[in-house]
Design a protein that fits this description.
The complex is a heterodimer. Chain A is an all-beta fold. Chain A is 0% helix and 55% strand. In chain B, strand 9 and strand 10 form a beta hairpin. Chain B starts with a strand and ends with a strand. The chains are: A mainly beta, B mainly beta.
Chain lengths: 116, 111
């Protein structure tokens, strides 16, 4: 079974702090994703990566950056946390299939981040 | 208008009832994905389909490409089915591996 592990289930930080959310997958997946989930808005893509050191902006990249130095690890960084970044953050990974991009995404358990 | 919509938004059912959750989308897609999210946040993939019907245990998913509509059915519902069910589509014109998520349907099954 694919295991996607997020470093924290709950995290409380203060405005202006630099925040790191870590995600690790153990199935050698090429693709990794960071989403945030807010009531009434569903899941929204922040950034994704399809290879080491490669990244692409999603729908709401503002205020975030990412790092993919190793294939199994994808980090989400809040450079200067703000209260509107209080949310549930979900990491996912998927296999890259050259014949079809329809590989399912496997999700972590989420990190509930509160910015005070 | 959202590209992926679900109905109902909230659903309460008695244990044993047959449940249907609907998903409609407005973009051309290459595949549709049903996901389940339990309280606490973890998301589990239930089905990925691009045509016809798939069945797994008490869960059945159908898709009608012409009508741009999919349904998730749960037979003999059980309290452990209580969760948020999310429909997601992989659009044909979206960027690399981008998925568009619906808002979710919150299901509560009462014993």
């Amino acid at each position: 079974d694919v295991k996607v592990t997020q470093s924290s289930r709950y995290l409380v930080k203060r405005t202006g702090e630099k925040v790191f959310l870590e995600c690790v997958q153990d199935m050698d997946h090429e693709n990794m994703f960071w989403y945030r989930q807010d009531p009434g808005l569903g899941l929204r893509l922040i950034y994704f990566s399809y290879d080491v050191k490669m990244k692409e902006k999603g729908d709401i990249p503002e205020g975030y950056s990412v790092s993919r130095e190793k294939k199994e690890r994808f980090s989400l960084i809040l450079e200067s946390a703000s209260t509107n970044q209080t949310s549930m953050y979900l990491c996912a990974s998927s296999l890259w299939d050259p014949l079809s991009s329809n590989q399912p995404q496997h999700f972590g358990d989420g990190t509930r981040l509160s910015i005070l | 208008k959202n590209e992926v919509e679900q109905s109902p938004q909230n659903l309460t059912a008695q244990e044993g009832e047959f449940i249907t959750i609907n998903c409609s989308y407005s973009v051309g897609i290459s595949a549709l994905h049903w996901l389940q999210q339990h309280p606490g946040g973890g998301i589990v993939s239930l089905f990925m389909l691009s045509s016809g019907k798939k069945k797994h245990g008490r869960l059945i998913a159908t898709i009608n490409i012409q009508e741009k509509h999919s349904s998730l059915h749960i037979t003999a519902s059980h309290p452990r089915d209580s969760a948020v069910y999310i429909c997601a589509v992989k659009g044909k014109k979206t960027s690399y591996d981008k998925v568009i998520f619906g808002p979710g349907t919150s299901l509560s099954v009462i014993p």
